[in-house]
Write a structure and sequence with these properties.
Helices cover 24% and strands 40% of the residues. By secondary structure, it is α+β, with helices and mostly antiparallel strands. The strands form 2 sheets. Strands 1, 4, 5 and 6 form a 4-stranded antiparallel beta sheet that branches. Strands 2-3 form a two-stranded antiparallel sheet. A hairpin with a 6-residue loop joins strand 2 and strand 3. The two termini are 24 Å apart.
């Protein structure tokens, strides 16, 4: 439900601005009703990871396959240190016992 994006931040901002428990309580109940019972226990966990890699490369002509430039490890080429930002995502759901979470499979969603 993309239209709910930022709903928790809106509630936090309202409390910071108004300090009204009743307004925040109403907003919380409205949000819970909008989310619905089926989705109430589903969460998405996002992790951003920085991976530092030592990289070598080869440059080839696609039409001929000939090697134009070679910085491979075998030829004593210099390694290049490169940092990649990788975003992982997993969805969790409430277990049958109502206490534990069941995690799905982690997926790479952005490189």
């Amino acid at each position: 439900k993309p239209h709910l994006k930022g709903s928790y931040q809106k509630i936090e901002k309202e409390f910071a601005d108004s300090k009204s428990y009743n307004t925040v309580k109403k907003m919380t109940y409205d949000l819970a009703e909008e989310i619905g019972e089926a989705d109430a226990y589903r969460r998405t966990v996002i992790a951003d990871v920085l991976l530092t890699c030592s990289e070598y490369y080869q440059l080839r002509d696609l039409s001929t396959g000939s090697l134009l430039d070679d910085y491979s490890m075998e030829d004593g080429g210099e390694e290049e240190i490169v940092v990649h930002n990788v975003r992982f995502e997993v969805t969790t759901e409430k277990g049958e016992d109502g206490l534990r979470k069941i995690a799905g499979s982690w997926k790479i969603v952005d490189l």
